[in-house]
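Amino Acid Chain and Its Fold in Token Form
===========================================
What this section holds: a protein sequence and its matching fold, both as plain text.
Structure line: whole-number tokens from a learned vocabulary of local backbone shapes, matched to residues.
Purpose: to set a sequence beside its fold so the mapping can be learned.
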Amino acid sequence: MKSIVAVTLTACYATLGWAQDANALLGKLSEQAKSYGSIEATYTSIMVDKMSDFEATQAGTIYVDGNKYSLDIGDYLIISDGKTIWTYEPAVNDCYVDDAEMMSEEGMDPSKLFTIWEDDFKNEWKGTVDLNGESVVQINLYPLAGDEKPFHTIQLFINEKDLELRRAVVKGREGTDVTYDVNSFKPQAEVPASTFTFDPGKFPGVNMVDNRI
């Protein structure tokens, strides 16, 4: 009986320790993020659709300033000033206009890529893993309103020494997973304010499609 109690207490202590470690590390990342200012980062995303056995790789560049962002992924240019989202599709010269708040409720907000753990998630410390020859910490995030999100888990891979996010994996509910590998990260970047608004004048003949109610 004593051994069973000891094992149980040890397990509880370990679980508590992991939770505290995860909260401490994420807290340090949040504190660091406050000093970032404008961010310029490049990344590679890999989308794997398990249901249809489909895989796609894209390179992208993202600029972030507070709740504003500009995301260029080649096939699409996605811009938000925090209130409105413009999604420009060069192939057809269409630009779709949506409400930023409504869109963020339906999926992942790119402006929170480096601080997503701060809002409505519980976390789990998974331990140290090897990522491309580098030792990183894996922390899993689970949305509190899980049924309302298109994903059930976000895996974060963090360099604990540099306090930098190396990879994020979004595990979709419908069998589609997206991996984001951060290739370069530049805080205090000089980003013009115009980066976060869509100017139709720069896209002759663009068809504006307003989806806002």
Summary: The CA atoms of residues 28 and 163 lie 7 Å apart. The chain has a mean pLDDT of 85. The chain has one domain: 2-210. The chain has two helices and twelve strands.
